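Consortium newsletter contribution from the modelling node. Members have asked for a concrete example of what our holo predictions look like. Here is one, prepared for the pyridoxal-5'-phosphate complex that several groups have been discussing at recent meetings.
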Amino acid sequence: MIRLIKPYISFAEVEDDFKEIFASGIFTKGKHVAALRQEIAHYTGAKYAFLTTSATTALSTALKILNIKSGDEVIVSDFSFPATANVVEDIGAVPVFADVSLDTFNLLPEELEKKITTKTRSVIFVDAFGNPSGLHAIKEICTKHAIPLIEDAACAIGSSENNEKCGKVADLTCFSFHPRKLLTTGEGGAITVNDDSLAGQLEIKLNHGAEIAGDGTQDFVDYGYNYRMSELQALMGRKQLIKLDDIVKHRNEVKESYRQALEPLGFQIQKTGSGIRHNCQSIVFKVPQGINRDTLIALLRTHEIETTIGTYCLSGGTYYARKYNTVQPNADFLEKNTITFPCFIDIDTSYISAKVQELTKSL
Ligand SMILES: Cc1ncc(COP(=O)(O)O)c(C=O)c1O
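And here is the predicted structure:
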């Protein structure tokens, strides 16, 4: 089976360091966690970086330190993975679904403006498939209304808009290091911030609510969590961060070769705005009119090619549709009509594109 993605890390790259970690017995809160925090901050241009167990726990913590509570409204990009809305629902706040662009797949500024009320406490902008198009425009609206912006950059490590990397722009940026991402720690995530006070609160929340004095004693000034990444995971992350820019470059080449082969067949690739460096976490097309996307995915699977849908219309999932009944039309269309193609280091896109051409003729 040609898989959607293969990890950009081998056991050989970590073997010696893993041996050292095992010999030291330091599996948590050690030098690799400290180093990866600094390296992510440096790479993204953010002042601080924190590591977590996933983007979900990162997003959840971001909402908590913003003190978002039951009854508050949080506006969310509607074309995303369910975690984006689930973290809002989980704390009793109301996810207000806002529609996205049919070109970039990202939150539309005019849709955001329409959804802002006196109850809005935050906005979660999603870099769909790692594409940060429109991030600065959304930030500007949030600043105008004094609403803190959380960026769900689960897919966006290595992307930038206007030469500012994801991680530097929003008030809080949350990354995922799940194996479908360019950098994986198995499971894992990170939060970046620039604000000293938010950083101070994160330090406490992510350490069981403890404030640590100079002599090492702990005062539990808040309630908190253990969402820590281990040393083994942090080491994996460090090894891939060094290669990240090369990975992004390669994925852009792959995207271009798919674009050249598939656009003449009527497939439309996810667009990026000006000033975008897209990490191409997923290479996603709208299928040509008249092609049944699910049939195409199933047919490709019989030829040992793994493809998948783009992502989900959050407002249209059974739970949210029943509870809020606010299905957004563009996100709904994109959920039904987008397809993601495989991309990894030694991929042969001409074989896949030729199969797509052959199979779409028969549909
Ligand atoms: C946009 C988005 N947000 C959040 C998540 C959740 O990430 P994690 O699995 O690290 O919790 C994902 C996962 O793919 C995602 O795509």
